[in-house]
Amino acid sequence: MMNLKLAEAIIGCLQLSGTSADFGRLARFAPLDWERTMGWIDRAGLTLYLLQQLRDCGASEVLPAQVLARFEQNLADNSRRVDHLLYETGCINEKLDQAGVQYVVIKGFSLWPEFCSNPHLRTQCDLDYLVARQSLRTAQSVLLELGYEARRSAAAQEFAFERPLRRVPSQFDSPYNVETTPMVELHAGIWEEVTHHVPFEEPAFVLNSPKSKEWGGLRFPVLSDEDTLLLQVLHAFQHVLSYWAKLSWFFEIGRFMEKRSQDSSFWKQFGQRLEGAPQLAEFSTIALELSANVFSAPMPEVAQHWRQFLRPSARLWLDNYGHSWALGERPPHKSKVFPDSKLSLFISGEYIPDRRARRDSLRHGLMPWKIPGKQPSTFLAPVKNRPWTRVQARWLDIAFTIQRLSFHAGAGLRYLWELPHWRDLTRSTR
């Protein structure tokens, strides 16, 4: 199990405003503490951000020598991986442009420099595109022509593609390794109502007059700054509904908030996007406040107006569970026997108006026996035309399933244990 005090110390070193970082706290932890916590910081996407912060402040020596060496190797590996992803992006973009596809690059490279100072610091898993609906078929054909193969996706508005496998992928693959195969995801929209049972009118993202951005010699179309922030907060909030989120997403949102803290013109424009859309204002506020809660990101002054749309139960959840929940693990991993991950189910049901859908969503959230659209045997796939890899894939799949069941059992019991306290907290707001 990870060392929670070390995790808190790491978060303390990544505060964006309000407090000075106490890097000396990191020196108090033994190499074994770091070894136990290494998986958590990698999956949280914070390893390279921490390394850069320590370098910038001349404090790298607080890390044990073997930990610093590992972090530096991770950065070298990730830099090669990101350069490869940039090359892949260039190849895809060229073909999409030739085919007349209307698209923008989202997440990933589009977050530089507002959300991320250097893409080499991001552990990017996918290449994501937001594509106009009338261009979807053409975009899919382009990827097939480039040698990608379609993969199943549980999301109704997401179409996933991947290069043919050369080896059996594993949940333990390094996120920094160039051999860890990225997915290419075409998004027709961001909000997955079918998955969450939360009806919501997604804001219109402008694709016909995109902003242009350049990094690493590649120029690519992206959303406006207002649309990019909206997309990021909606993406993060959807993962709150799904009881896990990558902690680096909130760090990156917080970094944007810090860089634009004095830009009243931007926040006025952003606020105009939220006017007349109370749900959008509420979802955005929750994501922004999680960034402020965990990383001390400065909330804009106009956020006081948005907070009026925040329902009392959401306010209680943010104040009582937001910080500990954000530090939780991504399924099927767990940082403690009874992880806090599923405590977000306390508020996810608040946004499901249909009683039956609310009950079904809670039941599936507590113990999802299978992922929609996937049978358990397809979590880890064998390599095509290599029959001997089926045994390897099967054993990895069994281990994954056991881990997943262990996580869901522990997280479910933690939810049930906390449920009476949550009901006491919310009783006065009903």
Rg to the nearest angstrom?
21 Å
Report the CATH C-level class of the domain at 85-223.
Alpha Beta
- Largest sheet descriptor: 5 strands, mixed
Residues in β-strands, percent = 5-15%
Helix content: 40-55%
Q: CA-to-CA gap between the ends?
A: 38 Å
- Per DSSP, the total helix count is 16
Looking at the structure, the CATH topology of the domain at 85-223 is Beta Polymerase, domain 2
CATH architecture of the domain at 85-223: 2-Layer Sandwich
Sequence of secondary-structure elements: HHHHEEHEEEHEEHHHHHHHHHH
Shape: globular
Number of strands: 7
Tell me, rounded to a whole number, the average pLDDT. 89
Strands across the major sheet, in which order?
1-2-5-4-3
Structural class: alpha+beta
Poorly predicted regions: 371-378
What does this structure look like?
There is one protein chain. Helices cover 49% and strands 8% of the residues. With 430 residues, it is an alpha+beta fold. Among the domains are: 63 residues, no CATH class; 139 residues, Beta Polymerase, domain 2 (2-Layer Sandwich), CATH 3.30.460.40. The strands form 2 sheets. It has a 5-stranded mixed sheet, with helices on one face. A two-stranded antiparallel ribbon has the order 6-7. Helix 7 runs antiparallel to helix 8, helix 7 packs across helix 10 and helix 8 crosses helix 10. The protein is globular and about 60 Å long. About 2% of the residues have low confidence.
